[in-house]
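Reproducibility note. Readers wishing to regenerate the assembly model reported in the main text can use the exact inputs given here. Chain order matters: entities are listed in the order in which they were concatenated for prediction.
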Amino acid sequence: NAGVTQTPKFQVLKTGQSMTLQCAQDMNHEYMSWYRQDPGMGLRLIHYSVGAGITDQGEVPNGYNVSRSTTEDFPLRLLSAAPSQTSVYFCASSYVGGQTDTQYFGPGTRLTVL
Amino acid sequence: DAKTTQPNSMESNEEEPVHLPCNHSTISGTDYIHWYRQLPSQGPEYVIHGLTSNVNNRMASLAIAEDRKSSTLILHRATLRDAAVYYCILYYGQNFVFGPGTRLSVLP
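Running the prediction on these inputs yields the following structure tokens for the assembly.
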């Protein structure tokens, strides 16, 4: 199993550009989520999904879009990048998102917006 | 908003035990206590979780206070590879809420 994979590893954008961060998992997990991590801080939840076709907002959803058309993939779209979105982005998955489910995290995408 | 409180940083010597404390005074009766760690330039990884009684696995032990308002993650013999940020986490809504964690430094 590859686990949770994220692409790209690094990305530099200009203000106003759009892009999609890719996340995939091969563990047949129903629950997937996106976090962002700013320097010296913990992870903050952006969006999450409890299954294909179902998404919901987390703590910091503004400026981001998600969709979940398959169990395996959960892309995160930045609609119009802003410098405040400079961060490290982590995707995670777990079996059904239950409280006792282990969450598996990807290696992260480091995004810089100029 | 994080529901746990941890020290910002701690230091340990290699091959000595490490006790990482966490306060969670607002924990409810059904909240599990979770610990994850984040090695440098990596995503977080699972360490251990528990509800009431103490828990052990190959990575660590979790000691939970009788009133469940605090817990301690115990690394029995710290190695250089254990240098990481350790997060004590409660489940909120349908999701984990991460605080800033404790940065553990391990000295050779």
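We highlight two features of this model. The two ends of chain B are 36 Å apart (CA to CA). Chain B is about 0% helix and 50% strand.
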